[in-house]
Amino acid sequence: MIGLTQDQIDQFNTEGMLCIPEFLSSDQTAHMLQASRRLLDDFDISTHPKTQFKTGDNDHIGDQYFFDSSDKVSYFFDVDAFDSNGTLQMPKQKAINKIGHGLHMHEKLFHDITFDARVKAVAKNLGFGDPRVLQSMLIFKNPVSSQVDERDNAVPPHTDGTFLFTKPQLAVGFWYALEDCTEENGCLKYNPGTHKTVPITKRFVKIDGGNKGCNFIDVEHSDTEIPEDRKEDYKLVECKAGSLILIHNSVLHKSEKNRSGKSRYAYAFHIIDGVEGYDDLNWLQVPPSGGTNFLKLYEE
Questions:
Q1: Which InterPro entries match (predicted)?
Q2: N or C: lower Cβ tally within 10 Å for the chain?
């Protein structure tokens, strides 16, 4: 069986997140890790803008390089990569926060992993009739060098639906651990069941067609009582390299800073079901000028 068991489907539907150990073979995982390091090594910093990727709600990026990355292989720096003079403060391999958002379009290995028969089987198990691949990215959570806040690479509680808004909220993230994920190096944490109990109250949209960047706007919802988001309710998702974590678009999840001496690399992509519920306010458009020409999962 290459898809999900009924127990796995039930757990995902109940909790909003599911970890599947050994989804990738050891060879696949090693090749993806090698490809990730190659992309970092081959990156020519002199030819790219110094665009930083920020995870706080009030300072998310939204420049033209960010918008144009939807169908390209683009590089985004950590917030502390440069000093006040714009000089890189660390080796470039440790300065990149993520690479995105069109790896599945341009890198054969990541394309093949994304459109693997097992991924298609999982999508069918979850009820997708016409899944489209929205975006793909490599996420690099490098170690913080000391206990002081030298590198703030924690990701606060959020829902993916805030940034990839659909009606209804049925998108799913496929998150692959390329290295072992532990509490110490910032593994994922999630609040089970919040995809059913906590509404999405804000969404990240283009302002004036992107001419004024992006910002958060309120989303109307009918919920009068929203449960408190308590840190003690979060579950750790510690897992081995090669694991696949499925993430519902509306489940609250986060990760802490990497306090270990080891990196935590991951590859992730998101799928939606058709394009009818995906509007032009979303920052991610293919082509970047506007459109929903997302690759069809079942036809690749």
A1: Phytyl_CoA_dOase-like
A2: N
Q: Is 260 or 111 the better-scoring residue by pLDDT?
A: 111
pTM of the model: 0.94
Distance CA 59, CA 69 (A): 19
Residue in 173, 172, 174, 177 with CA at minimum distance from that of residue 243? 177
Residue 160 phi/psi, 5-degree rounding, is -65, -25
CA distance 195 to 110: 28
Residue 161 DSSP label = G
Beta strand segments in 73-201, E: 73-77, 96-101, 131-141, 155-158, 172-177, 188-190
User: Token match 């939807």: residue?
Assistant: 70
Give tens-digit pLDDT for 139-158.
999 988 655 545 568 899 99
Pairwise CA distance, residues 25 & 123, whole Å:
20
User: Which secondary structure element, helix H or strand E, spans residue 236, and what is its range?
Assistant: strand 235-237
Integer-rounded Cα Rg, in Å, for the chain is 18
